[in-house]
Amino acid sequence: MFKLVSFNLNKFTQTLSIKATAFILCFAFPALVWAQTAPAAPGAAPVGATPPPGPSFLMQLPMILLFVGLFYFIMIAPQKKQQKQVQDFQKTLSRGDEVITTSGIIGRIAGITEKVVTLEVCEGTELRVVRDHVIRKLKDMTQAEVKA
Fold this sequence. Notes:
Blueprint: H1 2-37, H2 57-91, E1 98-101, E2 106-112, E3 116-122, E4 125-130, E5 134-137, H3 143-147
Antiparallel strand pairs: 1-2, 1-5, 2-3, 3-4
């Protein structure tokens, strides 16, 4: 079974290389030949002359810094702000709060430690959840979100 697959793969590769070679011979090579034999435009640099240097690094540096700054203010700063708000919220959790976890579980905090929150999801049913997965209080949601 493996020999058959490798044979088909080799045939595919051979077919692909034949097509690539045909493309180069038919289209790319003649274009290169014609480009090399074309007469120089009036006022053009002589053949073999080095092209003029491009913009220096110091000229490109302000544009690079601009893009880095935009990237920071559009993506990194808002994420840091949101992360800090969630961490501050998680520090203020207390027993009796109704909360929502990242997985969508709604419950009342029955117990809380440094790393684990015990949620009472219904009378007599408690779940232990990692504290970092509690994302917001239920009272922060609108009534339409709760009913849906």
